[in-house]
Amino acid sequence: MATHTDPPPQAPSPYEPETEAIPDDGKPFHPALVVIDMQNDFVTGSLPVPGGASILPQVNDLIQLAKFEARIATRDRHPTDHVSFAKTHEKPEFAKIVIYHPEDAKELLGKEQMLWPVHCVADTGGAEFIPGLVKDRFDATIMKGTHPSIESYSGFKDIWGRSETDLPGILNERGVTDVFYVGLAGDFCVKYTALDSVEYGFRTWVVVDAVKSISQDEVAWNQMRDKGVRFTKTEDVKKRLA
Protein backbone atom coordinates (compact mmCIF):
# COMPACT_ATOMS: atom_id res chain seq x y z
CA MET A 1 0.00 0.00 0.00
CA ALA A 2 1.39 3.39 -0.96
CA THR A 3 2.05 5.79 1.87
CA HIS A 4 2.27 9.56 1.73
CA THR A 5 5.60 11.11 2.60
CA ASP A 6 6.36 14.81 2.70
CA PRO A 7 9.01 16.01 0.24
CA PRO A 8 12.35 16.90 1.80
CA PRO A 9 12.60 20.52 2.86
CA GLN A 10 14.06 22.81 0.22
CA ALA A 11 16.99 25.07 1.05
CA PRO A 12 15.92 28.72 0.97
CA SER A 13 16.81 30.61 -2.19
CA PRO A 14 19.59 33.16 -1.81
CA TYR A 15 18.28 36.63 -1.05
CA GLU A 16 18.51 38.97 -4.01
CA PRO A 17 18.05 42.70 -3.49
CA GLU A 18 16.04 44.94 -5.75
CA THR A 19 18.09 46.45 -8.53
CA GLU A 20 17.86 49.57 -10.66
CA ALA A 21 18.88 50.78 -14.08
CA ILE A 22 21.84 53.16 -14.19
CA PRO A 23 20.44 56.63 -14.86
CA ASP A 24 21.60 58.83 -17.71
CA ASP A 25 20.90 62.02 -15.76
CA GLY A 26 23.39 64.42 -17.30
CA LYS A 27 25.90 64.06 -14.47
CA PRO A 28 29.50 63.11 -15.30
CA PHE A 29 29.72 59.36 -15.84
CA HIS A 30 33.16 57.79 -15.97
CA PRO A 31 32.77 54.13 -15.00
CA ALA A 32 35.31 51.60 -13.75
CA LEU A 33 34.98 47.87 -13.10
CA VAL A 34 36.52 46.13 -10.08
CA VAL A 35 36.61 42.33 -10.19
CA ILE A 36 37.01 40.98 -6.67
CA ASP A 37 38.86 37.77 -5.79
CA MET A 38 37.90 35.48 -8.67
CA GLN A 39 40.46 32.96 -7.40
CA ASN A 40 40.61 29.18 -7.38
CA ASP A 41 40.33 28.73 -3.63
CA PHE A 42 37.10 30.76 -3.60
CA VAL A 43 35.53 28.71 -6.40
CA THR A 44 36.83 25.13 -6.30
CA GLY A 45 39.43 25.18 -3.52
CA SER A 46 39.64 25.36 0.25
CA LEU A 47 37.08 28.12 0.81
CA PRO A 48 34.50 27.82 -2.00
CA VAL A 49 31.70 30.35 -2.24
CA PRO A 50 28.42 28.61 -3.18
CA GLY A 51 27.77 29.10 -6.89
CA GLY A 52 31.01 31.00 -7.39
CA ALA A 53 31.72 29.44 -10.79
CA SER A 54 28.30 30.41 -12.11
CA ILE A 55 29.05 34.14 -12.32
CA LEU A 56 32.03 33.76 -14.68
CA PRO A 57 30.03 34.50 -17.88
CA GLN A 58 28.63 37.74 -16.45
CA VAL A 59 32.01 38.82 -15.10
CA ASN A 60 33.70 38.18 -18.44
CA ASP A 61 30.95 40.02 -20.33
CA LEU A 62 31.54 43.09 -18.18
CA ILE A 63 35.33 42.92 -18.42
CA GLN A 64 35.05 43.07 -22.19
CA LEU A 65 32.86 46.17 -22.33
CA ALA A 66 34.80 48.89 -24.11
CA LYS A 67 33.70 51.97 -22.18
CA PHE A 68 35.16 51.33 -18.75
CA GLU A 69 37.83 53.89 -17.82
CA ALA A 70 39.62 51.15 -15.86
CA ARG A 71 39.32 47.44 -15.16
CA ILE A 72 40.94 46.41 -11.92
CA ALA A 73 41.17 43.03 -10.20
CA THR A 74 41.76 42.27 -6.54
CA ARG A 75 43.39 39.12 -5.21
CA ASP A 76 44.04 37.68 -1.78
CA ARG A 77 47.74 36.82 -1.52
CA HIS A 78 48.41 35.49 1.96
CA PRO A 79 51.56 34.28 3.70
CA THR A 80 51.38 30.74 5.06
CA ASP A 81 50.87 31.98 8.64
CA HIS A 82 48.28 34.66 7.94
CA VAL A 83 46.33 35.98 10.91
CA SER A 84 43.02 34.96 9.33
CA PHE A 85 43.88 31.24 9.22
CA ALA A 86 42.52 28.95 11.91
CA LYS A 87 45.70 26.89 11.57
CA THR A 88 47.83 29.90 12.57
CA HIS A 89 46.06 30.04 15.95
CA GLU A 90 45.54 26.27 16.32
CA LYS A 91 41.81 26.87 16.63
CA PRO A 92 38.79 25.41 14.80
CA GLU A 93 37.91 26.77 11.39
CA PHE A 94 35.16 29.42 11.50
CA ALA A 95 35.76 30.17 15.17
CA LYS A 96 36.05 33.85 16.05
CA ILE A 97 38.81 35.65 17.93
CA VAL A 98 39.84 39.26 18.49
CA ILE A 99 42.92 40.49 16.64
CA TYR A 100 44.95 43.69 16.90
CA HIS A 101 47.05 45.67 14.49
CA PRO A 102 50.76 44.86 14.98
CA GLU A 103 51.42 48.53 15.84
CA ASP A 104 48.68 48.50 18.51
CA ALA A 105 50.96 47.50 21.38
CA LYS A 106 48.36 48.36 24.04
CA GLU A 107 45.68 46.35 22.21
CA LEU A 108 43.17 49.19 22.22
CA LEU A 109 41.51 48.62 18.83
CA GLY A 110 40.55 44.97 18.62
CA LYS A 111 38.66 43.61 15.64
CA GLU A 112 36.63 40.42 15.59
CA GLN A 113 38.16 37.93 13.17
CA MET A 114 36.58 34.88 11.59
CA LEU A 115 39.18 32.12 11.33
CA TRP A 116 39.20 30.67 7.83
CA PRO A 117 40.66 27.55 6.28
CA VAL A 118 44.08 28.17 4.76
CA HIS A 119 43.40 29.86 1.41
CA CYS A 120 45.00 31.91 -1.36
CA VAL A 121 48.55 31.38 -0.13
CA ALA A 122 51.06 33.30 -2.24
CA ASP A 123 52.53 31.39 -5.17
CA THR A 124 50.07 28.49 -4.92
CA GLY A 125 47.41 27.44 -7.39
CA GLY A 126 44.65 28.38 -4.97
CA ALA A 127 45.66 32.03 -5.20
CA GLU A 128 45.54 32.13 -9.02
CA PHE A 129 42.64 33.49 -11.04
CA ILE A 130 40.11 30.86 -12.02
CA PRO A 131 40.43 29.24 -15.46
CA GLY A 132 38.49 31.07 -18.14
CA LEU A 133 38.60 34.50 -16.52
CA VAL A 134 39.44 37.19 -19.10
CA LYS A 135 42.41 38.62 -17.23
CA ASP A 136 44.38 40.23 -20.04
CA ARG A 137 42.15 43.32 -19.91
CA PHE A 138 43.03 44.28 -16.33
CA ASP A 139 44.83 47.60 -15.95
CA ALA A 140 46.03 46.66 -12.44
CA THR A 141 45.75 43.93 -9.84
CA ILE A 142 45.48 44.88 -6.19
CA MET A 143 46.93 42.34 -3.73
CA LYS A 144 45.28 42.02 -0.31
CA GLY A 145 46.28 40.33 2.93
CA THR A 146 49.99 40.20 2.17
CA HIS A 147 51.14 41.04 5.72
CA PRO A 148 51.00 38.07 8.10
CA SER A 149 49.42 40.06 10.95
CA ILE A 150 47.03 42.33 9.03
CA GLU A 151 43.63 41.33 7.69
CA SER A 152 42.31 43.05 4.56
CA TYR A 153 38.90 42.36 3.07
CA SER A 154 38.51 45.63 1.19
CA GLY A 155 40.36 46.45 -2.00
CA PHE A 156 40.94 49.97 -0.62
CA LYS A 157 42.54 49.43 2.79
CA ASP A 158 43.08 47.03 5.68
CA ILE A 159 40.42 46.48 8.36
CA TRP A 160 41.91 49.20 10.58
CA GLY A 161 42.23 51.66 7.71
CA ARG A 162 45.94 52.21 8.33
CA SER A 163 47.33 50.97 5.01
CA GLU A 164 45.78 52.15 1.75
CA THR A 165 46.20 50.23 -1.50
CA ASP A 166 46.77 51.73 -4.96
CA LEU A 167 43.07 51.38 -5.82
CA PRO A 168 41.85 54.87 -4.82
CA GLY A 169 44.79 56.50 -6.60
CA ILE A 170 44.17 54.58 -9.81
CA LEU A 171 40.48 55.46 -9.82
CA ASN A 172 41.11 59.13 -9.09
CA GLU A 173 43.88 59.42 -11.68
CA ARG A 174 41.44 58.21 -14.33
CA GLY A 175 38.67 60.55 -13.25
CA VAL A 176 36.31 57.72 -12.30
CA THR A 177 32.90 58.70 -10.93
CA ASP A 178 31.09 55.35 -10.81
CA VAL A 179 32.59 52.01 -9.75
CA PHE A 180 30.93 48.68 -10.51
CA TYR A 181 31.86 45.72 -8.30
CA VAL A 182 31.59 42.02 -9.16
CA GLY A 183 33.08 38.82 -7.76
CA LEU A 184 33.45 37.00 -4.46
CA ALA A 185 32.28 36.96 -1.77
CA GLY A 186 29.36 39.34 -1.60
CA ASP A 187 29.17 39.38 2.19
CA PHE A 188 32.90 39.85 2.77
CA CYS A 189 35.35 41.30 0.26
CA VAL A 190 32.70 42.71 -2.09
CA LYS A 191 30.79 44.28 0.80
CA TYR A 192 33.78 45.86 2.50
CA THR A 193 35.21 47.16 -0.77
CA ALA A 194 31.86 48.68 -1.71
CA LEU A 195 31.44 50.32 1.70
CA ASP A 196 34.90 51.87 1.43
CA SER A 197 34.12 52.94 -2.13
CA VAL A 198 31.23 55.06 -0.86
CA GLU A 199 33.52 56.57 1.80
CA TYR A 200 36.01 57.53 -0.89
CA GLY A 201 33.28 59.45 -2.71
CA PHE A 202 32.55 57.17 -5.68
CA ARG A 203 29.05 56.34 -6.84
CA THR A 204 29.11 52.68 -5.99
CA TRP A 205 27.30 49.85 -7.73
CA VAL A 206 27.25 46.15 -6.95
CA VAL A 207 26.23 44.05 -9.95
CA VAL A 208 23.96 41.57 -8.22
CA ASP A 209 23.96 38.77 -10.81
CA ALA A 210 27.78 38.87 -11.00
CA VAL A 211 28.29 38.35 -7.26
CA LYS A 212 27.95 35.31 -5.00
CA SER A 213 28.00 35.27 -1.21
CA ILE A 214 28.80 32.80 1.55
CA SER A 215 25.66 33.63 3.52
CA GLN A 216 22.33 33.47 1.73
CA ASP A 217 20.44 36.10 3.74
CA GLU A 218 19.87 39.83 3.31
CA VAL A 219 22.13 41.12 6.06
CA ALA A 220 25.13 42.19 3.95
CA TRP A 221 22.92 43.61 1.21
CA ASN A 222 21.04 45.76 3.73
CA GLN A 223 24.32 46.96 5.26
CA MET A 224 25.49 48.09 1.85
CA ARG A 225 22.21 49.74 0.90
CA ASP A 226 22.06 51.62 4.21
CA LYS A 227 25.45 53.18 3.44
CA GLY A 228 24.53 54.29 -0.07
CA VAL A 229 25.63 51.35 -2.23
CA ARG A 230 23.33 50.83 -5.21
CA PHE A 231 22.46 47.57 -6.92
CA THR A 232 22.11 46.80 -10.60
CA LYS A 233 22.38 43.88 -13.04
CA THR A 234 24.71 42.95 -15.87
CA GLU A 235 22.19 43.77 -18.59
CA ASP A 236 21.61 47.24 -17.14
CA VAL A 237 25.36 47.92 -17.12
CA LYS A 238 25.59 46.80 -20.74
CA LYS A 239 22.74 49.14 -21.72
CA ARG A 240 24.29 52.12 -19.94
CA LEU A 241 27.72 51.49 -21.46
CA ALA A 242 26.44 50.70 -24.96
From TrEMBL:
Keywords, sorted A to Z: Hydrolase, Metal-binding, Pyridine nucleotide biosynthesis
Record's keyword annotation contains GTP-binding: no
Entry's Gene Ontology BP terms: pyridine nucleotide biosynthetic process
Biased composition range(s): Pro residues: 1-15
GO molecular function, one term: metal ion binding
Gene3D superfamilies in UniProt: Isochorismatase-like
PANTHER family xref list: LD05707P, PYRAZINAMIDASE/NICOTINAMIDASE
Pfam families attached to this UniProt entry: Isochorismatase
Family: Belongs to the isochorismatase family.
Pathway connected to this protein: Cofactor biosynthesis; nicotinate biosynthesis; nicotinate from nicotinamide: step 1/1
UniProt EC number: 3.5.1.19
The protein, known as: nicotinamidase
Residue numbers spanned by region Disordered: 1-28
Annotated Isochorismatase-like domain residues: 32-236
